[in-house]
Amino acid sequence: MIEPSHTCSRLGPAATWRRLRMVAAITFACAVLSGCGEQFQKGYVLAPGALEQIPIGASQDQVLIVMGTPSTVATLNGEVFYYISQRSERPIAFMNDKIVDQRVIAIYFDKKRQVRRIANYGLKDGAIFDFISRTTPTSGQEINYVAPLFKALNIGQGQ
């Protein structure tokens, strides 16, 4: 005659409950720690194809219709609209979030309030880089205004 094995009865009820609680705690911890990471978007969210709708020579009103209100405005040989955004993610709950992308879209206007240039600044290899013209601004009024915007984005991020 074969008798069924009753592991629980050999351990006793107290040990069985401890083991079940430990398994439940480990399962819960694994679920929390391996849960889906979180992504955060701060500032301006660029709609797909938005920049393509703004040709050189477009009016300032057309830019406002397509892009909306800028994050900030400056005057550099005409007016400049800046749209500032930052994306960060946190792979595991309760950890600090890490910046994965930050952008400053700059739309430069001439004295007639028409678009003269568009730049999409981001960081590439730690330097400010224009992803439209594929250049790194090195000096002048333009970089003097854009660089502090990136530094302001990093405040409080532990970066």
Short description:
The protein has 159 residues and is α+β, with helices and mostly antiparallel strands.
Tell me what the structure shows.
Strands 1, 2, 3, 4, 5 and 6 form a six-stranded antiparallel β-sheet that branches. A hairpin with a 3-residue loop joins β2 and β3. 30% of the residues lie in helices and 30% in strands. The longest helix has 21 residues, at 13-33. The chain has helices at 7-11, 13-33, 60-67, 141-154; strands at residues 38-43, 72-75, 79-90, 98-109, 115-124, 127-130. It is of the alpha+beta class and 159 residues long.
Structural class: alpha+beta
Range of helix content: 25-40%
The largest pleated sheet is described as: 6 strands, antiparallel
The arrangement of helices and strands along the chain is HHEHEEEEEH
Residue-averaged pLDDT, rounded? 76
Shape: elongated
Strand portion = 25-35%
Report Rg. 27 Å
Rounded to the nearest angstrom, the distance between the terminal CA atoms is: 69 Å
Number of strands: 6
Identify low-pLDDT runs. 155-159
Tally the helices: 4
List keywords for this structure.
six-stranded antiparallel beta sheet; alpha+beta; 159 residues
Topology record:
Layout: H1 7-11, H2 13-33, E1 38-43, H3 60-67, E2 72-75, E3 79-90, E4 98-109, E5 115-124, E6 127-130, H4 141-154
Antiparallel strand pairs: 1-3, 2-3, 3-4, 4-5, 5-6
